[in-house]
Design goal:
This protein has a three-stranded antiparallel sheet with strand order 1-2-3, with helices on one face. The protein has two domains: 63 residues; 43 residues, no CATH class. The chain has 143 residues and is mainly α. Helix 1 packs across helix 3. It is 43% helix and 10% strand.
């Protein structure tokens, strides 16, 4: 079962926020590129060559995630009877445990730290997290 919890990024400094914005902007650009490729081919499949052909700062892992998200958007758009124009992705990044890890804070004013991969390879961003009652219940039972 998957759970989604939302936390504020207000506690992160401006440099960390800017790195996340840069990542989000590049990720969205790549998803839209993949959507254009899918539209031009009129298929549900992107080959590895097409994934690698996109000139991007994103790592291959991020490109795989962007590819998966673009294919889901494409399939949804194709099934829709009122298709309209090709969708442009401007939503949230759907990432898995390869990109983000939550760690309990040891001696800090924050409850947790989120370690997230960015465009700067080998230099993840640490985002401070203050928990709330609803989330604490999940974190306490987290394995």
């Amino acid at each position: 079962m998957r759970r989604t919890l939302k936390f504020s990024l207000n506690l992160a400094n401006t440099n960390k926020i800017q790195e996340l914005k840069d990542l989000s902007k590049e990720y969205k650009r790549v998803v839209n590129y993949y959507l254009m490729v899918l539209f031009s081919k009129d298929e549900y499949i992107l080959s590895e060559e097409e994934v690698k052909s996109c000139d991007s700062l994103l790592s291959y892992r991020y490109r795989q995630c962007a590819k998966r998200q673009a294919i889901k958007i494409w399939k949804s758009w194709r099934r829709n009877t009122k298709k309209g124009k090709l969708p442009e992705f401007d939503g949230a990044l759907i990432l898995d445990n390869r990109f983000i890890r939550i760690e309990k804070a040891k001696a800090s004013t924050f409850d947790y730290w989120a370690r997230m991969a960015t465009l700067n390879k080998g230099h993840p961003v640490l985002l401070p997290i203050k928990s709330y009652d609803y989330a604490k219940g999940y974190f306490d039972n987290w394995k």
